[in-house]
Amino acid sequence: MADMNLPLSSVGRNHIKLNDMHGAHNYHPLPVVLARGQGEWVWDVDGRRYLDMLSAYSAVNQGHVHPRMVETLMEQAGRITLTSRAFYNDQIGPWLKELTEFCGMERALPMNSGAEAVETAVKLARKWGYRTKKVAPEQAEIIVCDSNFHGRTTMIVGFSSDPQYRADFGPFTGGFKIVPYGDAQALRQAITPNTVGFLVEPIQGEAGVIVPPAGYLAECDRICKEHNFLFIADEIQTGLCRTGKTFCFQHENCAPELLILGKALGGGFYPISAVVGTDAVLGLLKPGDHGSTFGGNPLACALSRTALRILQDENLAGRAETLGQRFRSRLTAALPKSVVKEVRGKGLLNAIELQSSAGPARNYSEQLALRGVLAKETRSTTIRFAPPLVIGDDAMEWALEQITEVFSVVRGA
Ligand SMILES: *Cc1c(COP(=O)(O)O)cnc(C)c1O
Question: The whole model's pTM is what?
C-alpha cells in the first residue's frame, strides 16, 4: 500500500489499489503510477514529471520510447511477429550476425528473460563439461559468488546466498559452490576436477553495486583458463554500455567464453536475452537440446537490432563514462560524510551507500521521488542510480542538485 505522502490523485490511488487487491505482493514499489515516458523522463497518471534514475534496472539504456525503436516496432509488428524456430525468419539471421560482431563472439542463442539466459548458460557449461572436459556424469560443478543475483527461477535461487530469495522454494538443484565475491584466491581454492564454470557478475548490481577490486576479473579469467573451466560473465545488468564500456569485463583484460545478456538487449521494448559465446561451447548443442517458443522471434530480433545500433550510433558507452565520472566526483564532494559512507560505481551504474546511522534507504528514495527523481533502494542501506544512458547534461545537473539537497536535508528522517 502507499506508504508515503506523494500527492497522489484518486486515479493514482485507484491503480495502486488494483495492484494491492488483485496482484501477488512480490514487490514493494514506490507509490508512483507511470503512464508515459520519453528519453530519461517519465510522467505519472497525473502528468507529474520524473527523472528515471533506475531505467527498469538497466533495461532502458537507450531511453524511453526511442523514436527509432518505435519505428522498428511499428514496421515489424505490421509484417510478422512470431514464427517459432520450426522455421527461419528474416530477422534472426541478421540479428545473430550483428550481435556476435557487437560482442566479438562466434555464436549466440536467443531466449526471452535474463533468468532463462542464465539457465541456458548453466546448461551449456554442463554440456561442455561432460562432452569436452570429460567430467563424470552428473558431477559437474559451477562456482558462483556470494551475494550473487542471476534471476528468480528455482534453479537460480537455489544458489542464491540471500535467505529470502530461497525461503520455502526448495528443494533445489545441486552442483553449485558459493565463494566470496572479489576474492580470486577463494575461487582458486574452490576448484575441483569437476569444475566446469565460474558464473560471475562483473559488478554485483542487485547486491548494491558492488565493484570488485581492480584486477579481480582478469585474475579470475586467468584462473579459469589455467584450470580449464568456463568464465561465464552475467552482463545482463552491466553490459550494453552501462558501465562506460560496451561490456563491463572490458575494463580488464579478460575473455569470457560465455556472455549472458538481457535487459537493454531489447531497448526497453521487448524481452529478449541471449547467451553469446565461443563456437567451442555453443557449437555443442544439437537440434532438440534446448529451445524456446518465443526465443528469436522476428519482433524481438528486429527491435534488438535497432537497440544495438542505437548504443553504437549514439556512443552511449562514452556518455556513460563521462557522466558517470561527473556523478561520482560531484556527489562524493557534495554529500555529508555523516550521512553518506560511499558513492561508488562505474559508468552510469552507481550507488550511494548510507552510514548505518542514516536511517533506511527507503526514506531517501521516497524523498527523491517527492523531488521528481526516481531511484530505488537495493538492500537496506544502498540506493542505486542507473539513468538511461541518453540522459542529457541538463537533466544530470538537475539530478545532482536534487540528490544533494535530499541528502543534506533528510539526515535519516
Ligand atoms: C536482472 C538480472 C537477471 C535476471 O533477469 P530477468 O530478465 O529479470 O530474468 C540476471 N542477472 C543479472 C545480473 C540481472 O541484473
Answer: 0.97
